[in-house]
Design a protein that fits this description.
The protein contains 15 helices and two strands. The chain is mostly helical and 331 residues long. Helix 8 runs parallel beside helix 10 and helix 9 packs antiparallel against helix 10.
Length: 331
């Protein structure tokens, strides 16, 4: 397990570094605009190298197929549909990073992939399928919304992957634990290149596939009984709270919620003079000191799961409201 994770970290680091050099030479850059948080042209789309490194090392990370339905479509290491979806999303995301793609086509692809995965899962009732599709689609977009500051999405993927690996290990779901660790390792290899000040951005080629992979693992774990619902909703709690409450606030105000904006808390923090490093450390601290302890409680004391999840989400929501008010934004 550790050897495979090290291989993925190393390959991801090298692949992203090579991609960054090539992107600079071909001028595949994200040029600063009115909504940008960076000030110099920066290579973008590097998430495709992250996903590619994960695909190459995938066999070691899938010690068995997740479900009979997924087994029929899986590659040599299992969980093939999950990987195939990530590769597809990464390539489409790279195209979007390069040339732009209408939002409706991106959303359609996300809905199709989410529906395909939901069909393969052993859900107790077909009526849960729309909910699974909604959750997966929201998670992909929430991850994309939050990828607007150096290191943010990479750090969240690293931490969430480790949380899932721990939860699956405690549930004796070693195949899922290995896949989760692989995602965390790939993000770890990418992160040095995206650490403030970032030398490259993952772009849609990385943020959307990471949301798909982490959200997909959570719903697979739920369907198989390897995760409880409190555990599944905790691993991406920081991103879901910021993205979710920001969306609710925009709808409440009657804004065009589906258009680009700069009103996530992390964006407002930077607008008020905090740098990328300070924002990254603040969000990392939320994961380490609030979410991670709750995940441990849920894993070791399942009977306390809902209480731990409730306290965690309330703490994050209160923090979001306090910071929003302090920055001059009414929740």
């Amino acid at each position: 397990m550790i050897t495979g994770a090290g291989l993925t970290v190393g390959l991801s680091f090298l692949a992203v570094g090579l991609y960054t050099v090539l992107a600079r030479r071909t001028q595949f850059m994200d040029t600063p605009g009115i909504r940008s948080s960076h000030t110099v042209p920066t290579p973008t789309g590097a998430g495709v190298a992250l996903v590619a490194s994960l695909a190459v090392t995938w066999p070691w990370a899938g010690a068995g197929s997740a479900t009979p339905g997924m087994a029929a479509a899986s590659g040599p290491g299992g969980y093939g549909p999950l990987l195939a979806g990530a590769v597809c999303l990464s390539l489409v995301g790279l195209w979007d990073d390069a040339r732009g793609l209408p939002a409706r086509w991106r959303l359609l692809l996300q809905l199709l992939l989410s529906t395909g995965l939901a069909v393969m899962l052993p859900l107790p009732t077909p009526w849960l399928m729309p909910l699974v599709v909604l959750v997966l689609t929201w998670t992909m977009n929430a991850f994309n919304f939050m990828d607007g500051s150096d290191g943010m999405a990479g750090m969240q993927a690293l931490v969430s992957g480790l949380m899932l690996a721990f939860l699956f290990h405690e549930a004796n779901a070693e195949g899922l634990a290995l896949v989760s660790l692989g995602i965390s390792a790939a993000a770890g290899g990418f992160l040095p290149w995206n650490w403030p000040p970032a030398r490259c951005f993952m772009g849609d080629a990385g943020s959307v596939p990471l949301g798909w992979l982490l959200g997909g693992l959570a719903v697979i774990g739920l369907a198989e009984g390897s995760l409880t619902l409190p555990a599944a909703i905790l691993v991406l709690a920081v991103f879901h709270v910021d993205a979710g409450l920001t969306l609710v606030r925009r709808v409440w105000r009657g804004e065009r919620w589906y258009t680009a904006h700069r009103t996530h808390v992390y964006q407002m923090l930077m607008a008020q003079g905090r740098n990328h490093g300070q924002v990254l450390l603040a969000y990392a601290a939320l994961n380490v000191f609030i979410v991670a302890p709750a995940v441990v409680v849920v894993a070791l004391k399942p009977q306390w799961g809902w209480a731990a999840a409730f306290i965690t989400f309330m703490s994050l929501a209160i923090a979001w409201c306090v910071v929003s008010l302090k920055l001059g934004e009414r929740p």
